[in-house]
Design goal:
Elements: H1 3-11, H2 24-29, E1 40-44, H3 50-57, E2 61-66, H4 69-78, E3 84-87, E4 95-101, E5 104-110, H5 118-121, E6 126-129, H6 141-152, E7 157-163, H7 178-185, E8 189-201, E9 204-218
Parallel strand pairs: 1-2, 1-6, 2-5, 6-7
Antiparallel strand pairs: 3-4, 4-5, 7-9, 8-9
Length: 225
């Protein structure tokens, strides 16, 4: 993770990755995770995504993880929530913002995701990864995937990736091929590609981009007890 890079993006308002509406792919495919109402959904590298508000409206608790504190502050301010803020006793760089939205608890951690443990985030019933895996360079992704498996206890995932010719554009967002997704996760999950669609990246119509939606279901021998 590069804190300075992401801090500067937020400070300068260069947050093209933030969408002003709920991701239609989340609306279309969240039900495939088959999570009971009241379940806890982990949203890694969450920013101030409106997807989190939508999840609470559907009856789910949300646990977000975000490196940039101002993004978390903006989320709560824009939702009209005054959160409770607590400092981690064992790490001065970690804070937890917690509030109620649509009758559900929403808990956003300000932290380097690799500094958090399964004890911090507690039970996770599913992971929604729209912008985390594709935000990370190739050398960091294996560590990230292993860490997500660890802190979520192999919870099912709804994963959104994009694939394009990386030589034509620097990330982030980075290209993640279907083969790479399988490399990262096939030992733990059954992978189902739910959709793949042509897309446009940063209004660059000349760049051929495909957006992929994946359902990651724990293999039988990896199911949580």
């Amino acid at each position: 993770m590069n804190p300075e890079f992401w801090q500067s993006r937020w400070q300068e308002g260069r947050i093209g990755f933030h969408k002003s509406e709920v991701n239609p792919l989340l609306k279309a495919y969240f039900s495939t995770l088959n999570v009971a109402k009241g379940g806890r959904i982990l949203v890694p590298l969450s920013g101030k995504s409106l997807d989190m508000a939508w999840l609470t409206q559907q009856g789910y608790e949300v646990i977000g993880i975000e490196l940039v504190e101002s993004a978390v502050e903006e989320f709560f301010a824009e939702q009209g929530i005054t959160p409770t803020v607590t400092q981690a006793s064992n790490n001065a760089d970690i804070k937890r913002y917690q509030g109620q939205l649509s009758g559900q608890t929403i808990e956003l951690w300000v932290a380097d995701i690799f500094a958090l443990t399964s004890e911090d985030v507690s039970q996770i019933d599913a992971v929604y990864d729209r912008a985390a895996l594709i935000a990370l360079p190739p050398d960091t992704r294996p560590k990230y995937c292993e860490h997500i498996l660890d802190i979520s206890d192999n919870a099912p995932q709804l994963l959104v990736t994009i694939h394009y010719d990386q030589s034509q554009k620097d990330g982030p967002p980075f290209s993640v091929s279907p083969e790479q997704v399988r490399q990262y996760y096939s030992d733990t999950y059954q992978l189902t590609e739910l959709e793949d669609n042509p897309s446009i990246l940063n209004a660059n119509a000349a760049l051929s981009v495909t957006e992929h939606v994946w359902l990651l279901t724990p293999n039988a021998d990896n199911n949580n007890p």
